[in-house]
Amino acid sequence: MQLVIAEKPSVAMSIAKVLGVKNKQNGYMEGNGYIISWCIGHLVGLVSPEIYDEKYKRWNIEDLPIFPKEFKHYVLPKVKKQFSILKILMNRKDINEVINACDAGREGELIFRLVYKQAKCKKDIKRLWISSMEDRAIKEGFENLKEGHDYDNLFASATARAKADWLVGMNLSRLYSLLYKQNYSVGRVQTPTLALMVKREGDIQSFKKEKYYTVELDLDDFSLTTERIDNPDIAEQLKNLVPETIKIDYVEEKEKITKPDLPFDLTTLQRECNRYFGYSAKQSLDYAQSLYEKKLITYPRTDSRYLTEDMITSLVNNILGKNDFDTDRIKVIFNTKKVTDHHAIIPTASASIEEIESLPESEKRVFKLIKNKLHASFSYPLKEKLTKIIAEFDGFEFITKGKTVIDGGFTKYLEDYKPKDKKDNPLPIVNPGDEFSIKEKTIKEKYTQPPKPYTEESLLKAMEIAGKGEIDKGIEVERVGLGTPATRAGIIENLIYKKYIKREGKNLIPTHLGLAVISIVAKELKNAKLTSDWETSLYYISKGKSREEDFLQEIEAFIAKQIDLYKCVNEK
């Protein structure tokens, strides 16, 4: 008898359907040689410091740092019932093998393994590793189960991440809270993310707008405008000097070719859902996860925007179909070397029109965006003619720019997402030497604009590339950025929950509490490079290229240094 453990009940039901398991029991299903049960997200977590020693119930700087010799775990109170069911099932004598069918990623591995260890199970582990919840994908996955130990390194990276977060949170949150007599929460990812927003807020608050001027000439069918002029007297003088007609000196025309974007990874999907629909990163992830569990899209928690070469025939025949697509894109998008655990997010072949139309509007929007993005990514480039008309007078250039679409290419799939006010700006046919009457001359007063607050779209992008500029040129790392595609939504929601940031419309604004945290924490904790380096280390652990123990020793050394530094300052 094989025991299959999924991450959620809905996934377990999909697996049960494919395996022909129909006999429902309390917390599991049984039949056809299988028992299928589920976790409910995380069932097991790390214990709090007072479990190691009662003295930690009271917060004292003298008791820091807290470095457990061996980390202990406990069953989360809200899910004890389901854990008890799993523990009994794992240790049943008729179970000879346990199949980990939790989500195929770092957190899915952690969820299963912690339950397995907490239940003191010793049975052999097999791993179901799939990127789609389609019946065909599940069936093929069970026909090609992986050895559980093949993912030991992935589990090591997951436990290293969990322990590092515990060490930083428990030690440095206590340190700063005690030093400043205010309850502060510090995290290895949340703090540099908050620092990004605090810096932006500082730039906005310190911004001093500057007035400038442009001189605009209104002709018959278009207008010509100068660049920025800081002195109003010069602008006035120029306006008065310009004669009643003006001659065109240059006409520049060039063709611009824009290649289509790649299919979605999770971060790009979240960003575009925020831009087009106003969805938060968490909402976008939840909708995508629901679509995945309904077998309508592939695995959403991916950091790849490429597809594997073995998918070419199936995708072309079953999804792209008769739609005209650029065959040159095949060799660009299908690149197995650029896919790690999961390929880009795409619709599944089994997604029917009837199923899509019956979806809630929120999920329908996300699905259609994923579908349109895929079709656009295989389509032809956008070709535009860019025109620039220049007239010179008294050392000043009067300019206008226009754009005409020659071939819309991939944009035909993305028309629904084009801003309403973003229209083509074709210009009349004009040649150098042509002379035009000036109907009106005006001076426009304008102001420089402050930086914009972060939205979830722009913050996700900033988190994704954070630390890139800190890495020496010539050094290649596997990952940069704050967090992973799967965790960034949670980081943002956590900052909101802790009242370090707040939503104002689509903007994310740091609160007074958030500003205070960043004003006191060590500069290393605010630097994106530090957590980017940590994330890279976790990646290397997952690939067996470095050890969990070495990584945690580095974290402990960093924490000890921070505590010693503040202890010394306090003693003085």
Could you explain the architecture of this structure?
With 572 residues, this protein is α+β, with helices and mostly antiparallel strands. The chain is built from 20 helices and 20 strands. Strands 2-3-4-1-7-8-9 form a 7-stranded mixed β-sheet, sandwiched between helices. A 3-stranded antiparallel β-sheet has the order 11-10-17, covered by helices on one side. A 3-stranded antiparallel β-sheet has the order 13-14-15, with no helix packed on it. α4 links the parallel β7 (97-101) and β8. α1 (9-19) packs across α5, α4 crosses α6 and α7 (190-206) crosses α17 (512-520). The longest helix has 29 residues, at 152-180. The protein is flat, with a radius of gyration of 29 Å. The relative contact order is 0.13. The model is unreliable at 471-478 (pLDDT under 50).
List the helices and strands and how they pair.
Blueprint: E1 2-6, H1 9-19, E2 23-25, E3 28-31, E4 34-38, E5 44-46, H2 49-52, E6 73-75, H3 80-90, E7 97-101, H4 106-118, E8 124-127, H5 135-143, E9 146-147, H6 152-180, H7 190-206, E10 211-218, E11 223-225, H8 232-241, E12 245-247, E13 250-258, H9 266-277, H10 281-293, H11 312-320, H12 330-333, H13 353-357, H14 361-377, E14 382-393, E15 396-407, E16 435-437, E17 440-447, E18 454-455, H15 456-465, H16 488-497, E19 501-504, E20 507-510, H17 512-520, H18 523-526, H19 528-542, H20 548-571
Parallel strand pairs: 1-4, 1-7, 7-8
Antiparallel strand pairs: 2-3, 3-4, 5-6, 8-9, 10-11, 10-17, 12-16, 13-14, 14-15, 18-20, 19-20
